[in-house]
Amino acid sequence: MKYFNQRSPWIIFIALPLLLVIAIFLCSPKHNEITQGNTSLPDIALLSNPEGYYDNFKVEKISIVKRKDNRLFFSFSADKVLHRKRISKFFIYQNLKEIFLSGVQIDFYRYNMSPLKNKNSLIPLDDIGSSFTTLGKPSTPIEDYLAGNADIDLDLLSRILLENLSLSVFLSPDKKFSITAKVACINTDFENLVLEGPVMVMDSCGKEMLTSKAVWSEKFNGLYLPDGYTLQNEEHKGNAFFAINSQGELSRVWKCPNIEYIDFIEEREKVLYTYLSKKMPAYLSLMFGLPDKY
Question: Are residues 95 and 231 in the same domain?
Fold first, then answer.
């Protein structure tokens, strides 16, 4: 012990510079670059700027025209189209993909079409979906994905996400049915178009309907309104369903059909967020944007 005490000043003299060198090395930019090399930097940036990154393709100022029997069927244009990894509030999914479109204008022309067999829906979503999905390479069939193939290169399209949508169905040169929405989503079954607000619907007679959320059902050829609506400046509470006839007119159906439109992934995320908000202190829930309940 006496020997150690005599040597301790020299040990301290040598140890302090050594610790200083190690600290400088650990804090140096080059060292940080090496440690961050194992993280996914593009994924981190994707959460803060989702429009700037793509996984399969990126197109700007695109327009598509589709014809049937040499007659114009529908036209589509968008300011931007991205095929990317699916993004949610806190997650970036590696295998689940989505097609994101902004500044979308879709026009259907029914007045110059011959009657379509087995196609009574005013807005055929499968025609829209097939046009979008053909822009990139084919997605992995969902059967292969559910079979347990965990290949990182799997490409499963989970939804089509549209921002600032304007959709019109022209029934004659001077009559149309139209929908505008801030956000819209088409799931892979192409049965429903989920619209979120503000949503504005204008029928062929000029009646204006406003709502925060609406679901266009191709199967039932109408609009389901889960959170109420305002029609001609008159507010109506509770859920409702409106059928739309071949002339583009709204007709209230008092018994709402059973429409399955909930996105499974979003629902599971809501369960997780609710669980986390209950476990976190109130200030942390507020910081991360987690509501008390959904």
Answer: yes
